[in-house]
Amino acid sequence: MRKAAASTAGYGENAAALAQQYESLRFEDVHRDVLHLFPREPSNILDIGAGSGRDAAALARLGHRVVAVEPTGELRREGQRIHAALPIEWVDDSLPRLSAMRSRREHFELILLTAVWMHLDATERPIAMNSIAELLAPGATVIMSLRHGPVPQGRRMFDVSADETLALGRAVGLADSYCGQRKDTQGRDSVSWSVIAMRMP
Ligand SMILES: C[S@@+](CC[C@H](N)C(=O)[O-])C[C@H]1O[C@@H](n2cnc3c(N)ncnc32)[C@H](O)[C@@H]1O
């Protein structure tokens, strides 16, 4: 039987080039639609699927305590090298269970999943939403972006809608706080994004 592709397929082999691509984008541009939802006070922030750590670094510079979860070792090491001067805690863990993070029994005021959720299949997504809810502090926000468009060769991605994601969030007690669509920050015509935010009451 053929083994199913992992959610991280295609990232390790191209880590250096991908890190360069991710680092060429500005945090303020990637998150422009939801910047008003980021905490203003120094907070505990968890960036899941942090990639090269572009957002983790921007948030650490703003004075937040940032934990960056990244399961692709090659990308994690790129991030550690590029942002070595910043106090980012890098953790090797992965959705849907986030076993390492959940075992710490910590809570976060913001959880960020930028361009990650569509890598999870339909069985993994409800489990992942449950794991995220367990890590949110009361009043905390989760911000996600979902990619729509052709699947790059060698990657594993699914056609995931904002509606389904918001419904999964409601099922674990989260309230909708933002839902919008935007064009691709890298200017690719065939790619668009849903941006959603949910809040733990
Ligand atoms: C398109 S990249 C986005 C990286 C970064 N968030 C950014 O916006 O630049 C997707 C990231 O999701 C990570 N990823 C894939 N499957 C994952 C999983 N099951 N759990 C956590 N991260 C995952 C990949 O390793 C990769 O770093």
What's the overall geometry? Answer: globular
**Tell me, what is the CATH class?**
Alpha Beta
Q: Which residues sit in consecutive blocks of at least 5 with pLDDT less than 50?
A: none
What ligand species are in this complex? Answer: S-adenosylmethionine
The main sheet orders its strands as 3-2-1-4-5-7-6
Give the helix tally: 7
CATH topology: Rossmann fold
Number of strands: 7
Note down, in words, how this protein is organized.
By secondary structure, the protein is α/β, with parallel strands linked by helices. It has helices at residues 15-23, 27-30, 54-61, 73-82, 99-103, 124-135, 162-171, and strands spanning 44-48, 65-69, 88-91, 108-114, 136-148, 175-183, 192-199. The chain has a single domain (2-199), classed as 3-Layer(aba) Sandwich (Rossmann fold). The protein has seven helices and seven strands. A seven-stranded mixed β-sheet has the order 3-2-1-4-5-7-6, with helices on both faces. Helix 1 crosses helix 4. Residues 7-8, 11, 22, 48-51, 54, 70-72, 75, 94-95, 114-116, 119 line the site of S-adenosylmethionine. S-adenosylmethionine binds next to loops.
